[in-house]
Amino acid sequence: MPTPAVHIGPGNDPLLTEAVERGGGEVVALADAEALVVVGGHGDLPELHDGIRWVQLPSAGIESWVEAGVLDAGRTWTSATGAYSSSVAEGAVALLLAGVRGIGRAARATSWDNEALDGVQSTLRGSTIAIVGAGGIGRAMVPAFLGLGARVLAVTRRGLPVEGAYETWAADRVGEVFAEADHVVLAAPATSETKALVGAAELAALGPRGWLVNIARGSLVDTGALVEALRDGTIAGAALDVTDPEPLPDGHPLWSAPNAIVTPHSTNPSTLRVPLLAERVTENVRRFAAGEELLGLVDLSRGY
Ligand SMILES: NC(=O)c1ccc[n+]([C@@H]2O[C@H](COP(=O)([O-])OP(=O)(O)OC[C@H]3O[C@@H](n4cnc5c(N)ncnc54)[C@H](O)[C@@H]3O)[C@@H](O)[C@H]2O)c1
Ligand SMILES: O=C(O)[C@H](O)COP(=O)(O)O
User: What is the predicted pLDDT for the residue at 245?
Assistant: First the structure.
């Protein structure tokens, strides 16, 4: 089997060097490389010579790379889609539970008041949770929700069955899930199709007992409509790891809404992310050497 010549950069982490070597590759200078593992954002992408046949991006969500127009058609691009499932799914489950069980509110309290959460808490048991974008991350949430006694309605681009979901709907029915589900978790990529997927009408359909969780991208939600829905009690609450704008500025109404929980794009911290990326790099270097299909292939026509 050939030994793939892989450059890592512009930053590096010893775990990624080990990952390339474990996959059967050799870490080389950019000029000698046939593959590149990017460490950094799209602005850090070095000039790519024609010998680079494959580029591994570090993020699952690659809309900023797509929008910057740096993904050319002359080589293979892979994202980290699916690589961070365990980490981000756990964060999403934690966010929904923190909302439904009143933990967000309790964490803000500065004195003991055991009546403050009266009427605020509910349970996931017996509820219907819609996962909009049931890919790597979304699917990893399903066993946790089933274990808590909920049922799962999945939405994917094509609507092919998702294991554990009682039904899977295709993206063209996504507007219907807000009336069907008790709670909605967003885990779909940021594309032109998902932009402002959640607006005033969807929030009204979700209703006053429903929680919205977003671990995908802020662009999936109309922030103005969400702020109004939280203020008016149109929905029970929102738990957001991602926001529009991001970073969410100091003083933004989402910071002070008692029924909002905001984490700063932190469900995938580097302590968890880098080892997971390293696993993906090992597997893709092995596949590259073997001439097998790579994981996380970017489809430029789909935008992710
Ligand atoms: N908060 C974070 O730190 C964090 C970390 C990783 C990923 N993300 C975000 O989560 C997204 C999902 O990551 P993943 O690894 O699960 O990706 P994935 O590609 O495995 O899953 C995406 C899913 O979305 C579905 N989908 C595509 N278009 C859709 C549409 N229009 N409507 C409904 N569903 C649609 C796909 O069919 C697929 O099931 C990423 O695109 C990224 O933006 C966030
Ligand atoms: O999509 C991801 O992998 C994470 O959300 C991190 O994305 P970022 O690298 O664009 O911040």
Answer: 98
What residue type is 18 in one-letter code? Answer: E
Please state, in angstroms and rounded to a whole number, the distance separating the CA atoms of residues 304 and 288.
20
Domain count, the chain: 2
- At residue 99, the 3 state secondary structure works out as helix
Token couple for 285: 């270097």
Active-site residue flag, 246: yes
CA distance 37 to 101: 41
Ligand nearest to the backbone CA of 193: 1
Per-block mean pLDDT, blocks of 10 residues, the chain (304 long): 94 93 98 97 92 98 95 95 98 98 96 92 98 98 98 98 98 98 98 97 98 98 98 98 98 98 97 97 98 97 92
- Ligand 1 centre from 116 Cα, in Å? 36
d(CA 133, ligand 1 centre) in Å: 5
- CB count in 10 Å sphere of residue 123: 12
Interface ipTM > 0.85: yes
> Which residues have CB under 8 Å from 288's CB, separation 6+?
4, 23, 25, 35, 54, 294
Phi, psi angles (nearest 5°) of residue 278: -60, -40
| Inside any domain, residue 297 | no
Active site residue 115: no
Give the residue numbers spanning the domain of 174: 85-262
SS3 184: strand
pLDDT for residue 191? 97
Rounded Cα distance, 185 and 171, in Å: 14
Closest residue CA from atom 8 of ligand 2: 59
pLDDT of residue 1: 82
CATH number at residue 27: 3.40.50.720
The confidence score (pLDDT) of residue 272 equals 97
266 CA: nearest ligand 1 atom: 3
